[in-house]
Amino acid sequence: MSVKFHIDFRKNHKLKPETIFINGNGLSLKGDNNRLVILIHGLTGTPNEMKFLAHFLNKRGYSVICPKLANHGQPLGILKKTKWQEFYQSVRKTFLEIKERPDLIFVSGLSMGALLALLLAEEFPGKISGVSCLSPTLFYDGWNTPWSKCLLPLAYLTPLKHCFYFKEDPPYGIKNAQVRQLVHKYYSQAKLDDIRGIAQYGYPYFPVTLLYQLYLLVKYLSSRLGNIRAPVQVIQAQDDDMTSVKNAQFIYDRVASQNKEMVLLNNSYHVITADQERDKVAQEMVRFFEGILKDA
Question: What is the pLDDT of residue 150?
Fold first, then answer.
């Protein structure tokens, strides 16, 4: 789960003529160094939450593709019926449809997007040059997770999972007070069936059915982490309000990558792609990717 919102970063990062939006389904930026990064947004999020990273990477020559995951942008009644395999197919299809193969292809994702990024590296060994996992979400064990989360396994086993929703509460994964206020202004007024703000802010309500799909995805991925040998970077805030550092450590300890690292942030919450250390996140990703390039 991740916080979803739109900020117009173009004040500081001018859009190039090569910027392409395809039917509202994602973001594509053409670079000039024959390297490509696939960015994957979080569950119930939008490509907007990855936009800062996309333009940061593109200004350094990388081509960037940020697809919209399956049924995101649709009414909540449609999204909540989506299986995790459909989310992964959105990423897989993006990878397979790359027409002009660059020298190196990297993949990075936020929250659940980080798990999908790892799955792609596991399925296509040798074809993914490196993975950067941002606030990976395997366990909801952060300091702001509700006590009721302990009841979720019971709900997963009954039809109740189709009826219940969580509404996200402050701080929404954001430590920056100004940005958090923008999110709060929308979330505090949003109704369950109101989809007018989804394109900008994402979904303020989170269906239990999607938490169940995340649970199934984690179960599937956990048994395959040992197959991953591509370089892996994990970046997470030490004070992540939604998922503790245990999540980053779990991945770091289990992947078989010879080149792996964990970067901890000191001044952010969960949505590190748009919080107070977003520049540091982008810089660490570029440093990691460039190191892989030198070793290639």
Answer: 58
How far is C-alpha 59 from the geometric centre of its chain's CA atoms? 21
CA 88 to chain centre: 12
Give the up-direction half-sphere exposure of residue 236: CA atoms within 13 A in the CB hemisphere: 27
- Residues with Cβ within 8 Å of 97's Cβ and at least 6 positions away in sequence, in order, are none
pLDDT, average across residues 202-229: 92
Q: Is residue 53 very low, low, confident or very high in pLDDT (cuts 50, 70, 90)?
A: very high
Radius of gyration of the chain (CA): 18
Q: Kindly list the structural domains of the chain, giving each domain's residue range(s) and its CATH number in brackets, ordered by start.
A: 9-295 (3.40.50.1820)
C-alpha 33/C-alpha 285 separation (Å) is 16
- CA 55 vs. chain centroid, Å, equals 16
* Two tokens, residue 14: 């001018």
